[in-house]
Amino acid sequence: MWKIGQRGVPYFQRLIAAPFTTLRSLPTSLVETGQNRVIDASLTLIRERAKLKGELVRLIGGAKATTALLGVPLGHNSSFLEGPALAPPHVREAIWCGSTNSTTEEGKELKDPRVLSDVGDIPVQEIREMGVDDDRLMKVVSESVKLVMEEEPLRPLVIGGDHSISYPVVRAVSEKLGGPVDILHLDAHPDIYDRFEGNYYSHASSFARIMEGGYARRLLQVGIRSINKEGREQGKRFGVEQYEMRTFSKDRQMLENLVCINF
Amino acid sequence: MWKIGQRGVPYFQRLIAAPFTTLRSLPTSLVETGQNRVIDASLTLIRERAKLKGELVRLIGGAKATTALLGVPLGHNSSFLEGPALAPPHVREAIWCGSTNSTTEEGKELKDPRVLSDVGDIPVQEIREMGVDDDRLMKVVSESVKLVMEEEPLRPLVIGGDHSISYPVVRAVSEKLGGPVDILHLDAHPDIYDRFEGNYYSHASSFARIMEGGYARRLLQVGIRSINKEGREQGKRFGVEQYEMRTFSKDRQMLENLVCINF
Amino acid sequence: MWKIGQRGVPYFQRLIAAPFTTLRSLPTSLVETGQNRVIDASLTLIRERAKLKGELVRLIGGAKATTALLGVPLGHNSSFLEGPALAPPHVREAIWCGSTNSTTEEGKELKDPRVLSDVGDIPVQEIREMGVDDDRLMKVVSESVKLVMEEEPLRPLVIGGDHSISYPVVRAVSEKLGGPVDILHLDAHPDIYDRFEGNYYSHASSFARIMEGGYARRLLQVGIRSINKEGREQGKRFGVEQYEMRTFSKDRQMLENLVCINF
Amino acid sequence: MWKIGQRGVPYFQRLIAAPFTTLRSLPTSLVETGQNRVIDASLTLIRERAKLKGELVRLIGGAKATTALLGVPLGHNSSFLEGPALAPPHVREAIWCGSTNSTTEEGKELKDPRVLSDVGDIPVQEIREMGVDDDRLMKVVSESVKLVMEEEPLRPLVIGGDHSISYPVVRAVSEKLGGPVDILHLDAHPDIYDRFEGNYYSHASSFARIMEGGYARRLLQVGIRSINKEGREQGKRFGVEQYEMRTFSKDRQMLENLVCINF
Amino acid sequence: MWKIGQRGVPYFQRLIAAPFTTLRSLPTSLVETGQNRVIDASLTLIRERAKLKGELVRLIGGAKATTALLGVPLGHNSSFLEGPALAPPHVREAIWCGSTNSTTEEGKELKDPRVLSDVGDIPVQEIREMGVDDDRLMKVVSESVKLVMEEEPLRPLVIGGDHSISYPVVRAVSEKLGGPVDILHLDAHPDIYDRFEGNYYSHASSFARIMEGGYARRLLQVGIRSINKEGREQGKRFGVEQYEMRTFSKDRQMLENLVCINF
Amino acid sequence: MWKIGQRGVPYFQRLIAAPFTTLRSLPTSLVETGQNRVIDASLTLIRERAKLKGELVRLIGGAKATTALLGVPLGHNSSFLEGPALAPPHVREAIWCGSTNSTTEEGKELKDPRVLSDVGDIPVQEIREMGVDDDRLMKVVSESVKLVMEEEPLRPLVIGGDHSISYPVVRAVSEKLGGPVDILHLDAHPDIYDRFEGNYYSHASSFARIMEGGYARRLLQVGIRSINKEGREQGKRFGVEQYEMRTFSKDRQMLENLVCINF
């Protein structure tokens, strides 16, 4: 997927941006009011889908926690390809592909809705197309995750999306659970630039946002292969525990015996 | 894209269908009520998106008719591949691809929102995932088209979706305009089986549905290359004007001089 | 490769099946007689090919056992793709591809016909095209394997084919050797459904057929990653030793020290 | 498909050729006898398949001429890629692909065995693998075509195969019909080299073989785009009528009004 | 090929640009002197290759004009993909591909060096890697074309390269022939922006550069499908004759009877 | 990439070879003189590029050793595909691809010219196109490597090229350093045939050339998976230490503790 938007304005914001001189004189309140109505309708739709799935799982009964797929088709905060904007339906297709069967190695039956439910995608691209900026878009992602968490026993499994969505997702979990969480982050990169290429919401900056917001109690980054001076400084600044692959053998024992406390 | 659903129930309806014995005893009213809430929320979302786009085009002013993209990511009524369920975002990507520019051969500027606007996709797969059947789903497609038509000067350009959606789309146009319409149908197949492989909503039956519903005054099918006995009989039954490629040279003059009356 | 046959009759059986009303009144004996002549000719051809290869290897002399490739281009018993119907010539092409050389890691020279010979493919698709059903087709596979085994020192290495052919191949080996054999089956699935999607010869049922027929003394299934209740029950019923990957570390020592007795 | 054989002997003849010093001392008669048995068995198999198909078409009745597919998976006489050795099953798959339907533009129903039957492939690669050379192999192709023609009302439609098979196929037709035939050859090349890269049976020499054998009364080559001095001289020598694309407008009228006489 | 350079400096200029603060203090004269030596050596190499090819063609004798391939592997002035930077060797590979033969439709033998010779590529990427900017690079392209033209009877056929190279190539031809030339430009775009996305040497601005430089007497642009206001204004400003596809039928007669005068 | 040259003369040598009878009578001295001028100009160009890069690295200062990329686009000594003739620019593209960043696992910054510099490609194909044979071409490769080594602190990292270039590269290093070197050769094949398919410079013979020339003090070949009788005999003849994968566990300890002496 090409960076279509690079010629100028992102194509999803064309409506507002393109005939700029004309639209600049439009009453802002009108545009904003309309955008808010679209956002509200989007959240209502996600709430209703989560609610129906929650009701059904509860009616069947017996589930303590149900994985609930929530797709976030967002790719514009990637500094390279933007394919993640198209990813969620392809991921679902792979899950249900006829070449595999639905019993997991641990014996779980994925076709049982108490094991795996699906509340669909956030209409990310439609919201962007309406001219909504990333400040508000990221809040929509957070709100959507919370809406799913409100329906017991659903537990959201978010299908990205580029790595920028880690920020609104972790934020939602933290706010919903009532405090900072512990994160085990498996990645070759720390994604902790203050800003990457000037983008506050860059996929390479999501953990800077998470740490700044106080949404993490401990952040363990394991598997780092490519980190530069800024990555190390930001790690130190936020008290991140960074484990690089080149010293993995030394850390392995400790990492394999991590215990999840109080969660 | 594989026919995932062929193993049994379509995967979008798993929730309801999979643990059938359990769910059969669920109170139908509860399921249906939840589904209706999801459908209502979906239509509200489309209405709000169309409304905002319509408001903006009207504010800029000067547009008599604006193409409004409406995506219908639906593929399960295809008897072969179901890729159209994933098509609309790929079509948009091609439209805005950086390898082309945005001025058409006739000099129109596609970046002008008065020329081309976008109201996004109908959440078809999410609605199916909630267990909504095709009777109600097709109505959602019709209603969505009408919602776009309500926002002057938007004119919906529907991005499929397999050919089954011709039925709800034509139906919406006819109902909105107040009577049957004339259709120039360019295709190698007549898509007029009564049912194809038992499917009332098959992509090969959409024009049977259109004719039965009385949504077309004249139906001209041009370019037919593969038609069998049933196709011819159905054509005769509904008074369809079928022009096959093997006799195209004979019909060419007349077809090139078709005049659009009263529209 | 698409499941071409899903529209109705498998395309290889079209001749018999398509104009069903007409052909049903055809004298069965005539059709069956013709089919039997085709089957006999097919087996004769395989016998002659194996015989010539056997004669040559014996003439050169010095070989205790010679791998003899036998292709089985059969894919219709797969519940997903049917590509194995086209596989054997592609496998041969890979074996002799110019990017590799013909000396194995153990120093064997694959170009020496005493190491590797080839008796070609069973004409599976042609036999199916004649309207022969799977009962007789599977017997043709068994007979072909036996014909190769009759030519000392040839040892058939069967190139599939979907997994349904394990049944006729194991059956042939057992019948030829004069009793049930021990099988080390490396697979992520047990392929032991009584029937899969109603298919007695399904690629997912081949080991049920093998066990029912009494062709295995011991069946060790190693590497199982996806097994459901029926798989476990069938395993118990037939006395199969199933080793799953999730407990592999426990079983590893024993499995690495399996000894081949009396063979 | 790579030219696997270029390292030395074609891989299908390895058995005979590889350990040359050893095999050279083998009694030729033994090898030849075995090869002849394989060839006889191959022809018997084709005869039986054609016979059964012919019987069924005659039993249903009413067919004046039935297209009978005969595959010739042969590619080694190509001077470039050898993929045609794998082509016939892929061609059949395309014919029956679910993306198309089985009614032709002229209204023929391909599923009717009186319209289209299939007698399968000649086991070309197996015969080559036995060490049979092209002299005898080409005769097998000719004999196979004749065997199909003997079963009224079957008319062979040969699926190649590189262009070298035009020679044995035309030869068979001519011999069966009792005299030289008229050929309308549509191609960008004349394929009339005496030998191409030393190969008497080259795909670029097939029409030289046809003309030398006296199997054509008239040969019209239409569409020639690439012809050199040898091509023109050979054309003149054999009295071929060569129509090049660069002068097509001049010849078009005549070519469009060719009449088929006495056939 | 991705727009690698978009992260910051084009990678071919990294050496100079990357540690900017350090290099800025380097004595400019030293860098420039070294770059000039590289440019001189590049031109010497092209001169020697053209000279040898010219000598040989003249020695064989009898050629009035010989096509001489000159590759320009340059892609960074494209606003989309930059693949043309890798194109010339792929073009040559296609010319000599074994799937075609070397006689053209008009009977020319491409293997005759008097018909087609090759002087290789300009080392564009190496020159850029040394930090040479486009002002000087474009002069290298012009000089190279002239060097080939100096070797009678060679006529350069330039293999691009994105469309930005039209400018230095036309310039070279004009300067070498001693005056402005007539150009028949077949393209869907006029490539006549003053600057495209700020790039003076953009592939979309090459004909603006040609017209400004006075290198064209007449410029006929035929086949235009996508032109905007700036394209039309620039055309008018420079007296370009623009023929759009939408009115092609009107202009066809005249365009097919263009006569080449005085050339 | 196809073996284009197999039809006769390699296409890069067409000029000399094609009209053989004519050119044979050309004064050899003329051709050779021209070729020598082209070779000299090629080496001058490489010298100038290396010199400029060396000057800059020395000016910035502080580097003890700088990796200097040198591309050798040569593929005709491969016995299979010849794609390596096109490889170097693709390798560079991968190095700078936007999907990765430029900090290595060990913390090196690849964008720093003191870490990684680039002196471009040897114009291998242009030299071959001039009719220069492999004897002289291989010397050009050796000379080019030496030219890079002359610019302290540049250390050439040669980007191939098929494996035949190991010979001229090792030769250059040995000659430059003043004596035979120790080589740790990681490969599945020993590449030590006396000649492979008659080619003295074959990619499968490069280590035979290295050993014959006395350019290696010790040659350790580690990872051998496919070796035949000739490979073993050549190994013995030259005193090569060959470590095969099938006995790797035995040799592992020793190989992991190899110490680099006196280098």
UniProtKB/TrEMBL annotation, chains A, B, C, D, E, F:
The gene is ARGAH2. The keyword Metal-binding applies. Belongs to the arginase family. PANTHER family: ARGINASE 2, CHLOROPLASTIC_MITOCHONDRIAL, ARGINASE/AGMATINASE. GO terms for molecular function: agmatinase activity; arginase activity; metal ion binding. It holds the Pfam family Arginase. Transmembrane segments: none annotated. PROSITE patterns: ARGINASE_2. Keywords: Arginine metabolism, Hydrolase, Manganese, Metal-binding, Putrescine biosynthesis. Pathway: Amine and polyamine biosynthesis; putrescine biosynthesis via agmatine pathway; putrescine from agmatine: step 1/1; Nitrogen metabolism; urea cycle; L-ornithine and urea from L-arginine: step 1/1. Its cofactor is Mn(2+). The lineage of its organism: Eukaryota, Viridiplantae, Streptophyta, Embryophyta, Tracheophyta. This is AT4G08870 protein. Catalyzes the hydrolysis of L-arginine to urea and L-ornithine. The latter can be utilized in the urea cycle or as a precursor for the synthesis of both polyamines and proline. Possesses agmatinase activity. Catalyzes the formation of putrescine from agmatine. InterPro entries: Ureohydrolase (IPR006035), Ureohydrolase_dom_sf (IPR023696). It catalyses: L-arginine + H2O = urea + L-ornithine; agmatine + H2O = urea + putrescine. One of its GO terms (biological process) is putrescine biosynthetic process from arginine, via agmatine.
